[in-house]
Amino acid sequence: MFEQITLPYATDALEPHIDKLTVETHYGKHHKTYTATFNEKATEAGVADKTAEEILSNLESIEDVALRNAVKNNGGGYYNHNMYFEQFSPSPAAAPTGALEAKINETFGSLDELKAKLKTAATTRFGSGWAWLVVKEDGSLEVTSTANQDNPYTEHMGVPILALDVWEHAYYLKYMNLRPSYIDAFFNVLDWAKVSAKYDEAVK
Q1: Which domain holds residue 67?
Q2: To 5 degrees, how large is the angle CA 73–CA 74–CA 80?
Q3: How much is the pTM?
Q4: Distance of CA 87 to the CA centre of its chain
Q5: Is 30 in the same domain as 110?
Q6: pLDDT mean for each 10 residues of the chain (204 residues)
Q7: Which of 16, 72, 83, 183 has its CA 20 to 30 A from that of 89?
Q8: Which of 86, 113, 140 is the last residue before a domain boundary?
């Protein structure tokens, strides 16, 4: 059974950057529903014994198109949000260290340049979707984005290590139509120690 993560902080702990009502609604309603429906549809498709990463990377194995799309949308919603909520902290590491720090500097020139690229990817994603930092198969880093609940596994882009949700339900209660302001706030609670740990795992 696929389980929604337990938040490693209180629902008001990310204030004022991400407000309590948004966390309660986003996590307690949207994410909860994605998780429940993914379990239902993965079971129906006969793939519930696999990991979410395996399922999302091999959607073509589900022959029924409607069921495949349901698994894709709800599986992405489940996986993407688990990653999204897990990466936050009320007292985050403000910058990466170690191997990820070196790779960011090598690839983008600086952390500020990476943040700028992520912000551009997130603000220019039309409609609902996500911006990502991924580790590609050759070990390189790339900033990319996906529509709806698609993710780097469904699109065969690489291993995601940072997830930035730009669905309106992620920010509209506090920031209304000001998506760029929400993105700036996102970086104030992003724990780079957690992103660094995901990078280390991805390049093992």
Answers
A1: 20-86
A2: 90
A3: 0.96
A4: 9
A5: no
A6: 97 98 98 98 98 98 98 98 98 97 98 98 98 97 98 97 98 98 98 98 95
A7: 72
A8: 86
